[in-house]
Amino acid sequence: MKILFIWPNYDCPIGMSIGVAYLSSVLQQEGFETKILHINDEIGYPYDKEVILKDIEKIDPDIVCISTGENHYTDMYDLSRSIKDKLGKKIAIGGIHATLNAEDVFTLDSPFDYLIRGEGEWAIKELMIGLRDKTEISNIQNVWMKKDGKIIKNKMRRFVDNFSLPFMDLDNWDFEKITKLRRGWVNISMNRGCPYRCTFCHNLAEVKILKDDFNCSTTSNKELGYLRLRNIDNMINELKYIKNKYNFVTAFSFIDDTFTYDKEYMKKFFVRYKNEVGLPFVCLTTINDVDEELLELMKDANCDLVRFGVESTTERICKNIIRRKFSEEKLRKVFKKCKEIGLRTFSYNIVAHPTETKEEIINTMLLNSEIQPSGIRISLGYPYKGTEYYEIAKRMGELDETMEYHNYSTGTKFKFSEEQKLWIDKFKSFFWWWLNVNQNEYLYSLYNPLILELESIDINEWYQNKESILDYYIELDRKTSEFLQEKNIPHYNAPYGDRPDIALYQNNHVLKKELIDEH
């Protein structure tokens, strides 16, 4: 039995879906033949429906499995309709959009035959074995299906802690090309779940579903068993396997929502990682989930970069909209400690929340100027359907659902005045200028005139000549940065033409392009 996975990854940073890679390896372990279509321009396979349909016909799978988020869902629905109508293939849909919006996605007239909610490794294995062996499949947890003109909606399954996985299927991807385009960085995952309940994240929406399906009284991590750690032996063995098999791999990027939430586990892991793996690594965590001891252990284990979610510094936004607020005092302390021990830092920020003002956005830049992260990333608030963030914006009347983007750094779906949209568009194009004006008087004298000049461009000129305007200011910014580097004056700039959402602090501790995972 042959299973084809389709993963859309276009109009956004190139990567490889580790979720699909694990699903594929789980099925291979059971004797299934799997193929993966990775839709991405940079690897030479752009989204072209007719080409994809011809390739599916050539592969001739028994079932097509599509994993997608909201950003590509419309295209994937259209593709699925054509797969069903022209090729008559069975189709399974999965991914976070399908999980959070199952009732909307999986209707009787949709082209999908099956929907897999939540983590799919065990569910997809049971489903495919049932289809192959022609055994009963109507009661598989996490799976919805159609039968006799009705939809069977199975509940989610309970989680397993200290879990193990077969190693990712890397052979069905253009793994070498993808990895080299990412300068040798490979995404990997170690734990699952998140301690926090930020409104913009899928975790809050998912635990509400789990609460109902598990018949729990709360959405607490303890009652749901939501926080789970991977078996350390299993994790270390996979890292060693990838490192030893592929000589072009230079570093690992752990994509876990909160990498260090279990300190005792991490202390054991860092010792093993240092002694058995040793490559540089990047991770994502929060200031609440590290202390001085853990930061020093991370540095000793060859952590090259820690990403921290700063998100917003505005009390109104943090309290009423994203419901996430960490101590600014702790934030300063953590970033200071990282700087002292030579641990590079990244600050993740979300701007353009519903009703957020220009002054509030600039306020977030002020704190970033103070803590001086090695790098900073700016994303625009994106209300994914099914999240509390979406519901908050909808209740406020701040949603513009006519807008659709493949990348949450491209544009906002919130309602702003034309003047506000214009300023947000300008700001996201050169946000590091606002960081520089708060560094010192000299940088203020260089960058404040640029800000004033940028802000003075009227709306018609900006949108009619945006490409040439951006080219002009990008070149001016490059020359300004080169001048400052010659004088050894620290400042921020955005060195990656394909990633204008990332700025780096140019000083003796600068993140070199070959050392940073910019994805």
Overall geometric form: globular
Mean pLDDT: 94
Number of helices: 21
**Which ranges are low-confidence, i.e. pLDDT below 50, for 5 or more consecutive residues?**
510-519
Question: What's the main sheet like?
Answer: 8 strands, mixed
Helix/strand-derived class?
alpha/beta
What portion of residues is helical?
40-55%
Instruction: Report the portion of residues in β strands.
Output: 15-25%
Strand order of the largest sheet: 8-11-12-13-14-15-17-16
Count of β-strands: 17
Compute the separation of the termini in Å. 35 Å
Write down the Rg: 23 Å
Characterise this structure.
The chain is built from 21 helices and 17 strands. The protein has helices at residues 18-29, 49-59, 73-87, 96-100, 102-105, 121-133, 175-181, 202-214, 221-224, 232-245, 263-276, 292-300, 315-322, 328-341, 358-371, 388-395, 418-429, 432-436, 441-455, 459-464, 466-486, and strands spanning 2-8, 33-39, 63-67, 90-94, 114-116, 143-147, 150-153, 185-188, 191-192, 228-229, 251-254, 281-285, 303-311, 344-351, 375-380, 491-493, 502-506. The strands form 3 sheets. An 8-stranded mixed sheet has the order 8-11-12-13-14-15-17-16. Helix 1 crosses helix 6 (121-133), helix 11 packs parallel to helix 12 and helix 12 runs parallel beside helix 14 (328-341). The longest helix has 21 residues, at 466-486. The model is unreliable at 510-519 (pLDDT under 50).
